[in-house]
Amino acid sequence: MLIANHYPEFDYEADFGRLEEAVKDLEITYPVAQDNEGRVWRAYQNRYWPTLYLIDKRGEIRYRHIGEGITIRPRLRSKPCWQRLIPKF
After folding, report:
1. What is the mean pLDDT of residues 1-29?
2. How many helices (H) and strands (E) does the chain have?
């Protein structure tokens, strides 16, 4: 399951109506949580926009990508792509 966390960088991004509009305009089909107070952001000790986390069912971070330049949608369709992304422990 893919879940996005939106932590606004600017005050105007904290408006829920604007977030709903952006989700619709960008055709995002997965859930997007609005984290105006930054609770999730701080819980993961995040420092960069955007950051992608792959978290396993036990809640352990298996992969982290900082910055732009990764395309999620094609990788979700192909199990071998995920196998290349997940570090082996």
Report:
1. 90
2. 4, 4
